[in-house]
Amino acid sequence: MTGLSRKSSSAQPKDNLSPGDVDTVLEARDLHVLFSNGVRAVDGVSLQLHRGETLGVVGESGCGKSTLGRTLCMLQVPSSGKVLLNGSTISDMKGRNLRAARKNLQMVFQDPYSSLDPRQRAGQIISEPLLLAGAAKAQRQARTYELLDLVSIGPSGYSRFPREFSGGQRQRIGIARSLAANPKVIICDEPVSALDVSVQAQIVNLLVSLQKKLNLTYVFISHDLAVVRQMASRVAVMYLGRIVEIASADSFFSGPRHPYSAALLSAVPSMSISATRRKPIPLAGDPPSPINLPSGCRFHTRCWLKEKLHSPEICSTVDPMLAGEGNHQAACHFQHSVNAKTGD
Ligand SMILES: Nc1ncnc2c1ncn2[C@@H]1O[C@H](COP(=O)(O)OP(=O)(O)OP(=O)(O)O)[C@@H](O)[C@H]1O
Ligand SMILES: [Mg+2]
Q1: CB atoms < 10 A from the CB of 147, how many?
Q2: pTM, whole model, 2 decimals?
Q3: Are strands 185-189 and 40-50 parallel, antiparallel or unpaired?
Q4: pLDDT tens track for 57-67
Q5: Candidates 37, 40, 63, 67: which one to mutate for ligand 1, based on the most atoms within 8 Å of Cβ?
Q6: For residue 45, which ligand has an atom nearest its CA?
Q7: 248 within a domain of the structure (yes/no)
Q8: Co-location of 126 and 170 in the same domain
Q9: Strands across the sheet with 88-89, in order?
Q10: Do both 92 and 211 map to the same domain?
Q11: Are residues 32 and 94 in the same domain?
């Protein structure tokens, strides 16, 4: 991608801060989502989202990114675990309290074609959250024009239908709608994946400028590591429902500590990632079934590092927890060997 804004350094928590130093807006504690078909889509995720940051969430298709995003804003009820917003446990809330809390958490979806009701005009679509919140008509209209301006659609867009906009403009309408009720956190689930590359850059720039203007906190879900590198101040890597690495973006992109992350990064030719550039790292086969998870480390069945280390027994017997120095953590028994072995 070209022409993207740089991530905001002011929004980026410093790598050497302890968790108590940062202002946590949203927190997940040991979240699990087990679907009725036996799929463990989210399998023990804990994370803290710091006010003003963008946490990029990456991983292969089916690893649980969208389910985690939906659970963080309570569109999906967790099977167990907690979600806390500003210290209040919203996963225990119901009815009016939950609706009020959820106003602070909004989602922007991947597909601007299917996430907007084709029978509604843009003005109606954007103002719907305000209608649900009981705002009067004049107030709704004024706020909708303000939002159209904020996303650079302009007042003429108010009475047009989704089909009358381009893909990028439709995503702008989706973003305007997500902003209607003044949320604190926006979960962006692949918000630019369905758009042309040139339009992707415009939407990324819009999200960055809105974040600064409105002091928003983002979870930015994407399979595109180049976009995540532009947007994110921290990165979490998911594999089979679990976060296997979480770090500041600078630390992550300069030296991933999980063999899975190193393989993902090495597959992006446009990135100059010193430690992983030397050779593409093979990522054999597809992920195992999320119904029957492997024993020990869930990545061991595809792990290139395990092969290089001559298959240590611990990899297939002991499930590694997230561990590491500073704010860079990885769930790998041999995380200190990852960078040494990538250049072999
Ligand atoms: N409602 C559901 N019922 C049963 N299984 C589901 C449901 N939603 C998702 N899954 C399964 O949960 C797992 C995680 O899905 P999810 O959509 O969260 O992955 P993802 O990382 O967002 O993938 P993608 O990159 O393709 O969007 C997958 O195995 C998926 O098939
Ligand atoms: Mg998804």
Answers
A1: 23
A2: 0.91
A3: unpaired
A4: 999 999 999 99
A5: 67
A6: 1
A7: no
A8: yes
A9: 40-50, 24-34, 80-85, 88-89
A10: yes
A11: yes
Residues 127 and 264 in one domain: no
The reported pLDDT for the residue numbered 147 is 97
Q: What's residue 275's pLDDT?
A: 47
CB-defined site of ligand 1, < 6 Å: 35, 37, 39, 41, 59, 61-67, 223, 290
pLDDT band at 344 (very low <50, low <70, confident <90, very high): low
* CATH number for position 90: 3.40.50.300
Neighbours of 252 (CB within 10 A): 28
Ligand 1 atom closest to the Cα of residue 63 is 21
Within this chain, do residues 217 and 77 fall inside the same structural domain, yes or no? yes
Q: Does any domain span residue 167?
A: yes
Report the residue among 39, 57, 60, 79 best suited for mutation to probe ligand 1: largest number of ligand atoms under 8 A from its CB: 39
| d(CA 146, ligand 2 centre) in Å | 31
User: How many domains is the chain partitioned into structurally?
Assistant: 3
Q: Which ligand is nearest to the CA of 237?
A: 1
Compute CA distances 18 → 11, 22, 50, 85, 169, whole Å: 16, 7, 12, 20, 40
The CA-based angle 113-114-116, given to 5 degrees, is: 80
Kindly indicate the confidence band of residue 343, based on its pLDDT and cuts at 50, 70 and 90.
low
Are residues 338 and 260 both part of a single domain?
yes
Instruction: For residue 57, report the distance from its CA to the centre of ligand 2, in Å.
Output: 10
- Domain span including residue 36: 22-104+186-232
Instruction: Point out the ligand nearest to the CA of residue 65.
Output: 1
The length of the chain is 344
Q: Verify that 336 and 216 share a domain, yes or no.
A: no
Nearest CA to ligand 1 atom 7: 35
Domain boundary (167, 182, 197) is at 182
